[in-house]
Amino acid sequence: MAKPRLLEPLTLGRVVGDVVDTFTPSVIMKVTYSSRKLQVCNGHEYPPSSLSKKPRVEVGGEDMRHFFTLTMIDPDSPSPSEPYLSEHLHWIVTNIPGTTDASFGTEVVNYEMPTPRLGVHRYVFVLFKQKERRPVIDPPASRDRFNTRWFAEEHRLGLPVAAVYFYARREPAAKRRW
User: What is the pTM assigned to this prediction?
Assistant: First the structure.
């Protein structure tokens, strides 16, 4: 049986395998950085200077009675050739009602903009459907060595329902705006 077309770029980019197990995408998730009305597309590269502010993450779903958890990670930290800090956690939002966006959820870990130092890094947004509205969860002790699979297992989230990733690399000093 052929994999769904939505999963192909995630497999080619090694998001499936490195970050999550094979899953069936079942919810639409749209990630847009407002600085340039930049909609994230799988496998595209964006300059970190355009990613400095928290993105708008729109979540589909059936209705507002279903809740979602969002994570954003860098599986290539500190460098793709030696990712010994992988996964680096950039953001966690829980209790996002379906048909809304991440601003309606509970931010557990504040957004941290991508700051790749060496090489081209992948940045991955992973969306999970919660079984119920969750009480506030404690943030991880460290952003480094986060593990999306363990997080999902610990919080009984199951497999993802959506994911999208992009690439970013360090910009020359003249182009940086942060």
Answer: 0.91
